Amino acid sequence: MYGSQIERLKKDSRELDHFIKRLEKEGDESKVYKLLKKQQFLNSRINDIEETVKNYRV
Q: Would the pTM of this model clear 0.70, i.e. be above it?
């Protein structure tokens, strides 16, 4: 159950990274800043979930 959800979140993070890079090229710094914060939160949640699953399996 968690495996597919984690992979989806990782994919979302990668897609967000591509979108951020596109916005950087366009020069929209305010959106870049907001999206970077969201990506950092998303990545921290992915790490938390992976750690929880890892501890649960042990």
A: yes
